[in-house]
Amino acid sequence: MPAQKIKPTKLRSEEKLANVDDVLKNPDLELAQLKFQLSLPEYSKDQAKKSQLLNSITTNDMAPYYQKVCGDLRWTVNDNLLKAMQERNEKALEAFDEEIEYAVNNLSVIDAKEAFLNKANYLSQIGDKDATIQTLRQAYDKTVALGYKLDNLFHCIRIGLFFMDLNLIQTNLQRSEELLELGADWHSRNCYKMCKALYSLTVRDFTTATAIFVSAISTFICT
């Protein structure tokens, strides 16, 4: 199932970010798995998987990711589809930028942070890696609470997993570990463990991954 769209809305100080479950699934790692499978000879002509990936891309207007997928998998770009998605992306991003400007000039630092996070969540969902990381950094600079800082870094790690950027994962795992030493709840500690375990699986360190997964069972509360 494709991830639920995160739509831009006018920011009000009492509004919260997107549903926590949606944020935790953003970006959708199932799409990265589909892309990886389609890169393998045994799945390269699997029309069902191709249709599933394309459906998620078009449903969520993932223009930046569509360009990357077409380049990496050597698919022919549908110029009309790409243009339509890019136009919708531009319109949505203009709305987010308006929210950010209003929040920065008229609301609190917390509201400004949330406005940046709303934009980052959208950029993450459409698969714009560099813009997502840049916007997350802007949100981080306006974040005070330790837990929210860690959530920001965990999002960066998910971006790294989605794009198989090992350096991005390693950097943010290290930053997360440093923040955890300042004191954090079990939710954040377990999320860190899951990120580290997934990284261990990525580099085929199955022994470490297994040990981490097992160690988190007794206090596991995050997905």
N-to-C SSE string, H for helix and E for strand: HHHHHHHHHHH
Terminal Cα span? 17 Å
The number of helical runs is: 11
Helix content: over 70%
Q: Largest sheet at a glance?
A: none
Structural class: mainly alpha
State the total count of DSSP E strands.
0
**Percentage of residues in DSSP E strands:** under 5%
Q: In one word, what is the shape?
A: flat
- Residue stretches low in confidence (pLDDT < 50, at least 5 long) are 1-20
Organism: Anoplophora glabripennis (Asian longhorn beetle)
Keywords: Proteasome
Domain 26S proteasome regulatory subunit Rpn7 N-terminal: 79-220
InterPro entries: Rpn7/CSN1, Rpn7_N, TPR-like_helical_dom_sf
Polypeptide structure, described:
The protein is mainly alpha-helical. The chain has a domain at 146-154 and 164-223. It is built from 11 helices and no strands. It has helices spanning 20-24, 29-38, 47-59, 63-73, 79-106, 109-126, 129-141, 146-163, 166-180, 186-202, 206-216. Helix 8 runs parallel beside helix 10 (186-202). It is flat and about 50 Å long. The model is unreliable at 1-20 (pLDDT under 50).
Task: State the gist of this model.
By secondary structure, the chain is mainly alpha-helical. The protein has eleven helices and no strands. It comes from Anoplophora glabripennis.
